Amino acid sequence: MKTGHVGLNVSNLERSLAFYKEIFGLEVVRESFEKGKKFAFLGHNGAVTVTLWEQSDTTFSTSHAGLHHLAFEVDSSEAVQRMEEKIKALGVSLIYPGITAHEEGAQSGGLFFLDPDGIRLEIYTPADIASHEAHTEEGPACGFF
Known about the structure:
By secondary structure, this protein is α/β, with parallel strands linked by helices.
């Protein structure tokens, strides 16, 4: 078994669609803008990675059970650095100041930020991050809010 895709509730499909396409380079596989049935399937080469469903009136709440965060793995610390430049150029704020190790001394780590509805996102690599500090003492950087 493997994860097929992740579905996210959003408050504004057009805004979230632009965000996920721009940040992650995802392509629209299928979409609907029919009133009451707005959604988009995003991915690469026809394979769906993320689905967006406009059926929320509020932003993400960390006080309710459900999705904690969504993480995307890249293959190198250089790829994380390129994503950091892209994210900053687009004016998206990072949760921590730059690339962050998952924990002090960990080889893995990356970038942590929020989507337009406040859903916590991560772009990480499993290795070559040990030279970056962990900007949290409350446990893994991808963990507590």
